[in-house]
From TrEMBL:
Protein name as it appears in the record: DUF2834 domain-containing protein
Domain of life: Bacteria
Organism name: Paracoccus methylovorus
Alphabetic keyword roster: Membrane, Transmembrane, Transmembrane helix
Transmembrane annotation, as ranges: 12-30, 64-85
Length: 91
């Protein structure tokens, strides 16, 4: 877990704040857990899920799997979270 906290660059801080903002907005508007998801949102969520799975298999970036449960709160939460995770150095 310390590797997530190390190297908190300004860009990674922006990704983290956007992920948190996406989560808060989804909860505030009652849009969590796939309520009101349209067709294009489903395609975008499926694309991000596939990308995370491939990322995990190819780069062994196991933290990218944290994005999958975040998809329940929508792309506004999951995509910035994925970018936050993806932008860290993999050891």
């Amino acid at each position: 877990m310390s590797s997530l906290n190390s190297e908190l660059t300004p860009l990674r801080l922006v990704w983290a704040l956007l992920a948190l903002t996406g989560l808060i907005v989804a909860l505030w508007r009652g849009e969590a857990f796939w309520q009101g998801v349209g067709g294009s949102d489903l395609v975008a969520q499926a694309t991000l899920a596939l990308w995370c799975l491939i990322e995990t298999m190819l780069r062994r970036n196991w933290a990218a799997l944290l994005t999958l449960p975040a998809l329940a709160f929508g792309l506004g939460c999951a995509l910035p979270l994925y970018l936050f995770i993806r932008s860290r150095r993999i050891t």
